[in-house]
Design a protein that fits this description.
eight-stranded parallel β-barrel, binds 6-O-phosphono-beta-D-galactopyranose, 14% strand, 16 strands, alpha/beta
Length: 473
């Protein structure tokens, strides 16, 4: 009983939210760099407002982020002190291929990640690497329209070959696209997509997604060819959808919402477009341009495991109902749940339900690669930070995850919290929305010393890992 002996405990971050150093050592500009802080952030993330470069008078948090680029040794030492077995991080595509369509990679970018992986390995920490966490070199957007172009598959393939070859002995766990469903909800942030006025957005989004799904299958194929030990996963922003009431129309609505989300993992894990998707495309007038060989590629190279982020469950109603904040997805407010300071509803049991839904659907190993509480922390006069609310959130979720393993038989490879160290919030660009066990001295405007210090949750998580999830007190 309990978690497997080799259970991968750790934490997760993304390049654009922690690295900074946006223009150092040959790195090119990316979509994630030009998303500003403040009221224009959302329109830019949605692709409704075009911003392809920095504009005077705006603050861009990703430029410096928490400067992991220069602090990685110190940060990894802290992860190791908590006993991390794994660390999930992502590659900034434009560090490796600054424009995205070059033939040769940027050596300085490759060296940076090689040093990070070696540092992790020196502590026995297994890297879990997201190939793209929202990144897209800006040149690929301006020249090709990003993922709307089929040519992106070739650029992504080149990136993957470079990474799999160079880090063959250093990295064995790969995720192809972070929260692939984000392309539907935040198309510019999620994949560098912009729209022309009057065009059918859904047509563009699903065509772009087809390219990503093909790129993901291709990456899985190449990863296995280069090193049969490689394990490749898909990554979904998950969270089961409940019906607001037992009214059949509400239940149906919840079913439809679940389906909209599971569409991605259905293709990546089962290897084909589900019939409900084909019907939906017909109904909505969406025509996917496919090439011969696409279907057989999807079928031959499904993922090895299914990973996902979980912050909350969602709720649906057939009629208009009060909405709640949540990981970008609009959701009906569930009257039975409490909310975080940022309005995200908290539902630990929903994690168990989500784990079961995914496992019953695919019978593949699962990996929870994001889960955590964004909250504002107070530094006391003695320097301590007593984040009991964070401990409480994580404890409840780990308990449910344990029940899913012990009582339901879900096969779970690991758990990485979002995020082990405070970093820039993806949705709001704030530093104040903190997730870490490690505090970073910086405010929303980018002021601060960047000094790292341990919160109360640091020692707690260390104990959780040391006891393999048995001691949650
Ligand atoms: C997920 C993203 C992460 C992360 C997290 C928390 O959607 O994969 O990048 O940021 O959500 O969200 P936020 O930072 O908006 O609080």
């Amino acid at each position: 009983m309990g978690f497997r002996q080799d259970f991968l405990w750790g934490g997760a971050t993304a390049a654009n939210q922690c690295e900074g150093a946006y223009n150092l050592d040959g790195r090119g500009l990316a979509n994630v760099d030009v998303v500003p802080f403040g009221s224009r952030r959302f329109p830019v993330m949605l692709g409704d407002e075009k911003m392809l470069d920095f504009e005077d008078g705006l603050f861009y948090p990703a430029k410096q982020a928490i400067d992991f680029y220069h602090h990685y040794k110190e940060d990894i030492a802290l992860f190791a002190a908590m006993g991390f077995k794994t660390y999930r991080m992502s590659i900034a595509w434009s560090r490796i291929y600054p424009l995205g369509d070059e033939l040769e990679p940027n050596e300085a970018g490759l060296v940076f990640y090689e040093n990070v992986f070696k540092e992790l390995r020196s502590y026995g920490i297994e890297p879990l690497v997201t190939i793209t966490h929202f990144d897209c070199p800006i040149h690929l957007t301006t020249k090709y329209g990003s993922w709307r172009s089929r040519e992106m598959i070739g650029f992504y393939e080149r990136l993957c070959r470079t990474l799999f070859t160079r880090y063959k002995d250093l990295v064995h766990y790969w995720l192809t696209f972070n929260e692939i469903n984000m392309m539907l909800h935040l198309p510019f942030m999620g994949g560098g997509l912009l729209f022309e006025t009057g065009e059918n957005k859904k047509q563009v989004q699903y065509q772009a997604l087809h390219h990503q799904l093909i790129a993901s299958a291709l990456a899985t194929k190449i990863a296995h060819e280069i090193n049969p030990e490689n394990k490749v996963g898909c990554m979904l922003a998950a969270g089961c959808v409940y019906a607001l009431t037992s009214k059949p129309e509400d239940v149906w609505e919840a079913h439809m919402k679940n389906r909209e989300n599971y569409f991605f993992t259905d293709v990546q894990s089962r290897g084909y477009y589900p019939s409900y998707a084909t019907k939906m495309f017909e109904r909505e007038g969406i025509k996917l341009a496919m090439e011969p060989g696409d279907e057989s590629l999807l079928a031959a190279h499904p993922v090895d495991f299914v990973s996902f982020s979980y912050y909350s469950s969602r709720c649906a109603s057939a009629e208009g109902a009060e909405q709640t904040e949540g990981n970008v997805f609009a959701s009906v407010k569930n009257p039975y749940l409490e909310s975080s300071e940022w309005g995200w509803q908290i539902d630990a049991l929903g994690l168990r339900t989500t784990l079961n839904q995914l496992y019953e659907r695919y019978q593949k190993p699962l990996f929870i690669v994001e889960n955590g509480l964004g909250a504002s922390d107070t530094v006391e006069s003695d320097g301590s930070i007593n984040d009991d609310y964070r401990i409480d959130y994580l404890r409840q979720h780990i308990r449910q995850m344990k029940l899913a393993v012990d009582l339901d038989g879900v096969e779970l490879l690991g758990y990485t919290t979002w995020a082990p160290i405070d970093l820039v919030s993806a949705s709001t660009g704030e530093m104040k929305k903190r997730y870490g066990f490690i505090y970073v001295d910086q405010d929303n405007a980018g002021h601060g010393t960047l000094k790292r210090s341990k919160k109360k949750s640091f020692a707690w998580y260390k104990k959780v890992i040391a006891s393999n999830g048995e001691d949650l007190d």
